[in-house]
Amino acid sequence: MQQHTTTNNNNNPALSPELMQAVQAEVQNCLHTSVQCVTTEGAAKLLSVEPGTIRTYIKKGTLPASKIGKDYCILITDIRQLLNRTAVVIRMDKRFKSRAI
Prior knowledge:
The chain is α+β, with helices and mostly antiparallel strands. It is built from 4 helices and 5 strands; from the N terminus they run ββαβααββα.
């Protein structure tokens, strides 16, 4: 699976604007259904990353989750908050890059 993430200067995950829109739309769909949490695999699919990346986010505290058995339960609202934080980072990176030229 090809990863669509990049890293910024703070080593936080950053998604391309196109992927960000697609992921936000998918998260919106989840919010309008009865799904309130997803597994590590489900979160990975939503964010277009590998499940190992999701586990890393959880271990670093970037993405809150509850351990249930051998897997994690990740709230859709927490994924949405991660996306909102990432969107701010992307906007900030674009501002600084445009001024540096």
